[in-house]
Amino acid sequence: MGKTTDKIAGRAKQVVGVVTGDEETKREGQRQEDKGKLKGDLESAIDTAHDALIHFKDKTEHALDELKDRIDKK
After folding, report:
1. Cα-only R_g, the chain
2. CB burial readout 32-66, b (16+ within 10 A) else e
3. What band does 1 get if pLDDT is binned at 50, 70 and 90?
4. Each residue's pLDDT tens digit, 17-38
5. pLDDT tens-digit profile of 39-71?
6. Looking at residue 9, what is its pLDDT?
7. Residue 39 neighbours by CB under 8 Å, 6+ apart
8. How far is Cα 49 from Cα 3, in angstroms, rounded to an integer?
């Protein structure tokens, strides 16, 4: 399931657990909701790392281009 689906389904299970007095269903719902939150956090971390790598690649390419220009001028 996706992050949003896990969070919604988890919350629904928690409600069912509370209404029926079933602590196991309530805990299962909390775990599923937490799983959805973790998926979102992981996606965010991956996006941040990806952006940082692209920035690093661009900076490295720019530095190499400048170095090549300096070498060519000599």
Report:
1. 24
2. bbebbeebeeeeeeeeeeeeeeeeeeeeeeeeeee
3. confident
4. 999 999 999 999 999 999 999 9
5. 999 999 999 999 999 999 999 999 999 999 999
6. 96
7. 2, 3, 6
8. 19
Which residue in this structure is represented by tokens 């090549």?
68
| DSSP string over 4-66 | HHHHHHHHHHHHHHHHHT-HHHHHHHHHHHHHHHHHHHHHHHHHHHHHHHHHHHHHHHHHHHH
Tokens read off for 12: 């629904």
- Quick one: CA dihedral 47, 49, 55, 58, positive or negative? negative
